[in-house]
Amino acid sequence: MTDLEKKIAEEQAKVDQLKRLAETFPDLKEDQDRWKTKRYYSKLVNSQALDVDRIHSCGCCSDAPYYAMPYIEFEGIRIYSNPPRFYLGEGSWSGPGHSWDGDWAKKMEVAGINKRVIDIVKIEQARDEAGQIDDEENG
Q1: Which terminus of the chain is more solvent-facing, meaning fewer CB atoms within 10 Å of its CB: N or C?
Q2: How far apart are the first and last CA of the chain?
Q3: What is the DSSP letter of 92?
Q4: Rounded CA gap, 118 and 108, in Å?
Q5: What is the pLDDT of residue 136?
Q6: Hey, is 45 helix, strand or coil?
Q7: What are the backbone angles phi and psi of residue 18, rounded to the nearest 5°?
Q8: What are the angstrom distances between the C-alpha of 52 and each of 38, 48, 100?
Q9: 47 to each of 15, 17, 107, how far by Cα in Å?
Q10: Long-range contacts made by residues 30-35, C-beta under 8 angstroms, separation at least 24?
Q11: Given this model, what pLDDT does residue 19 score?
């Protein structure tokens, strides 16, 4: 197989995978953050998500907004909930930890996010508020 044939085969595999994603998640959309990182999201994931990324919107600002991003893995690709991000609060500018938004759990419940994901974040919040967690540990 030539280098060109290999490249064609790799690109065709990507196209085939995108077709399977579109068939499995008919409402699939693509999200892009300020760093041009692309992520797929679908409302069909909301009740299925068992894992959650927690991220700050900025790596240089200690008080950056803090988000939860529930997801599932499908063929090695993360598919996030719709909406893909839930605002949890923001980092503390005076040290480790966060200032938590009072409505984050309600917003997740209304969106139909799996209870396991909500519980994961509630445990993190309790540990954070007790001073038992730092930013290195949670994103």
Answers
A1: N
A2: 43
A3: -
A4: 7
A5: 52
A6: helix
A7: -60, -35
A8: 17, 11, 17
A9: 27, 23, 14
A10: 31/80, 31/84, 33/57
A11: 96
